[in-house]
Write a structure and sequence with these properties.
The protein is about 35% helix and about 30% strand. With about 230 residues, it is an alpha/beta fold. The chain starts with a strand and ends with a helix. Bound molecules: adenine.
Amino acid sequence: MKLAIICAMDEELAAINNILNLSPTQQLTKAGNTYSVYEYGLHTLVTVVSGIGKVNAAVTTQTLLNHFTVDAVINVGVAGSLIPELSFGDVVIADDLVEHDFDITAFGVPLGQIARMDTFSFIADSKLNDILKTVELTGHNVRCGRIVSGDQFIDSADRAKFLHSEFNALACEMEGAAIAHVCYLNQMPFAVVRSLSDMAGQDNKGVHSFNELKDMAASRAALVVKYLMENI
Ligand code: ADE
């Protein structure tokens, strides 16, 4: 299988490279990002760091799909928890994703609904998720559910509570739904795997714990990628 892996930050891709021990067979730079190709067992991987936020993620995903033939796209990285039961290093596998900051509520449309789009949320590929769901991480929970994305670092208990109650989401980050949106438009199967670096402000320590724990969380997410590569 040929899989694309998109991370928002260098630290997230570094954790994957560390665990999979990859060295590239080919590299291509387009629109400011370098796409690297690797052979891993029977599979081929194309990896790229998109940069942070929905626009960077969308440009990177479309550029990748324009230049590489892949079977699926996996977005991997860290996220903020939106519920007290999920904490640092736990993993959320997205069932579906919503852009929480897409707001045309002035027209009576629900928050998060993309204007004139035939879906509210972007649903992850069930075959990929069936494999991902079976991963076990010692000492950490693995949960499936909704992830919301927006161009905001969430660092407020009120905002975290709102995002959970409005969208029934488990985690928040800044790219997954944009990657999912581009995959949806291209009819490309995708999955999103995120490990929790912070409580999105529920503990009043969002930025602090993100800075302290992002590498730990990135390495948990990377373990899930390894599991996927070995079981796909
Ligand atoms: N990525 C990791 N933690 C996050 C948070 N609290 N808000 C948005 N993106 C994040």
